[in-house]
């Protein structure tokens, strides 16, 4: 099996356009969650009126203006989640210095891009138009803009990538599955380079209303949105929907070395599991999460004691955070692991960017990679008070400088789908 490394990263997030801006603002404790009543009057009827939106504005200032990234024709044909992914891909490819020109290079470069919900606005608007005006009100672009795999399709066509063209859609585990699957394409020899990640843009009154009816969202912070997402905090009450995209360039180690590419980290392990339990809630003991992490560690051939940091899925729900916390402690404490809970380093970055759904696992992979690359543990903002059982180090409110050579990042989704990825500093160059 070939070794897989990360050579490029790119992102569009509620903290800004560009991974460096996002990362710096994350470390400084900023939050991208806002009240969205001004965007649509229908939000005022919902119990949750907040979301983590990509800021509008000039690219130079870290804002999003589609025309700065896409032609008018591209913007017309592409769903918003795919637009974000295209921008993140452009940044990641430039960061990696990878611009294939020959047939052989393009044939050995693939893409794996997923989304959890995809083009929600297109579905809603087309249903309303069809109901009012019938067949002729349906756009010929309706189906192409609806299909989640068209995100990968558009990007592959723009850059001429003819390697594996894959799209995972596994709810909030999508981004992690996309990156893990892409790594396996490289490890098994199906590609030398893979562009991989996740994207989402479904901040719409109906989508927010649906999550609210499922009792998944924070509803008590409409007047203080920056305080709403509070992973591990005793007063947490639900997640905040976010949008954006994150992409990584994964590469066969020998291929990267041969072209002198920068290497951020090595993807050492990938584990997946299923809860087989409930549509939206995990098992309270975190068994599914535990199994995913255990498989990732086995795949990476590391003992629990080697893990310096865990970027948790921790969305700020009462049951979910507690279950994951229990799973992490079960894995990392005891035989072959840490001696006490205070030695277990965990943080959740969702306090700052909200929950990007299908893009969550991908942006958290980028944060995990940078944690290793720069030896800094990003903070868990809004962590004011810990409940019983939460006795690890969660980097409350402030980033922590520490040696991070091995890290896990977790993603879990509705339907009980779980994934964990293990990254490590490249030791033998």
Automatic annotation (TrEMBL):
Keywords: Acyltransferase, Fatty acid biosynthesis, Fatty acid metabolism, Lipid biosynthesis, Lipid metabolism, Phosphopantetheine, Phosphoprotein, Transferase. CDD domains: KAS_I_II. GO terms for biological process: fatty acid biosynthetic process; secondary metabolite biosynthetic process. Residues 1-425 form the Ketosynthase family 3 (KS3) domain. The active site is at 172 (for beta-ketoacyl synthase activity). Pathway: Lipid metabolism; fatty acid biosynthesis. GO terms for cellular component: mitochondrion. Pfam families: ketoacyl-synt, Ketoacyl-synt_C. GO terms for molecular function: 3-oxoacyl-[acyl-carrier-protein] synthase activity. NCBIfam families: fabF (TIGR03150), PRK07314.1 (NF005589). Belongs to the thiolase-like superfamily. Beta-ketoacyl-ACP synthases family. This is 3-oxoacyl-[acyl-carrier-protein] synthase. The gene is CEM1.
């Amino acid at each position: 099996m070939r070794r897989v490394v990360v050579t490029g990263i790119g992102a569009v997030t509620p903290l800004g356009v560009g991974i460096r801006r996002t990362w710096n603002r994350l470390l400084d404790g900023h939050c991208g969650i806002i009240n969205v009543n001004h965007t649509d009057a229908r939000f005022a009827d919902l119990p949750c009126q907040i979301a983590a939106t990509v800021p509008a504005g000039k690219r130079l200032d870290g804002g999003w203006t589609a025309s700065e990234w896409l032609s008018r024709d591209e913007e017309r044909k592409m769903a918003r989640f795919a637009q974000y992914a295209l921008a993140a891909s452009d940044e990641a490819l430039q960061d990696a210095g990878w611009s294939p020109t020959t047939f052989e290079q393009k044939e050995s470069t693939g893409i794996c891009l997923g989304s959890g919900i995809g083009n929600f606005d297109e579905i809603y608007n087309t249903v309303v138009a069809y109901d009012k005006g019938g067949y002729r009100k349906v756009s010929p672009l309706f189906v192409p803009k609806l299909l989640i795999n068209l995100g990968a399709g558009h990007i592959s066509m723009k850059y001429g990538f003819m390697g594996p063209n894959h799209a995972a859609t596994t709810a909030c585990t999508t981004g992690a599955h996309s990156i893990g699957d892409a790594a396996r394409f490289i490890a098994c020899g199906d590609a030398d380079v893979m562009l991989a990640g996740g994207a989402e843009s479904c901040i719409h009154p109906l989508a927010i209303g649906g999550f609210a009816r499922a009792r998944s969202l924070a509803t008590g912070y409409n007047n203080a949105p920056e305080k709403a997402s509070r992973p591990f905090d005793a007063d947490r009450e639900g997640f905040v929907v976010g949008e954006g995209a994150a992409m990584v360039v994964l590469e066969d180690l020998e291929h990267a070395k041969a072209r002198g590419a920068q290497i951020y980290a090595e993807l050492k392990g990938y584990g997946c599991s299923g809860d087989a339990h409930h549509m939206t809630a995990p098992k309270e003991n975190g068994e599914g999460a535990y199994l995913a992490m255990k498989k990732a560690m086995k795949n990476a051939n590391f003992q629990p004691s080697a893990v310096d940091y865990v970027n948790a899925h921790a969305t700020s729900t009462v049951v979910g955070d507690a279950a994951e916390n229990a799973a992490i402690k079960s894995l990392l404490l005891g035989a072959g692991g840490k001696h006490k809970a205070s030695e277990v380093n965990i943080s959740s970055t969702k306090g700052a960017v909200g929950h990007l759904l299908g893009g969550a696992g991908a942006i958290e992979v980028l944060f995990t990679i940078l944690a290793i690359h720069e030896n800094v543990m990003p903070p868990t903002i809004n962590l004011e008070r810990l409940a019983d059982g939460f006795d690890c180090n969660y980097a409350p409110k402030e980033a922590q400088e520490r040696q991070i050579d091995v890290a896990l990042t977790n993603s879990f989704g509705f339907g009980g789908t779980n994934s964990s990825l293990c990254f490590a500093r490249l030791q033998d160059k």
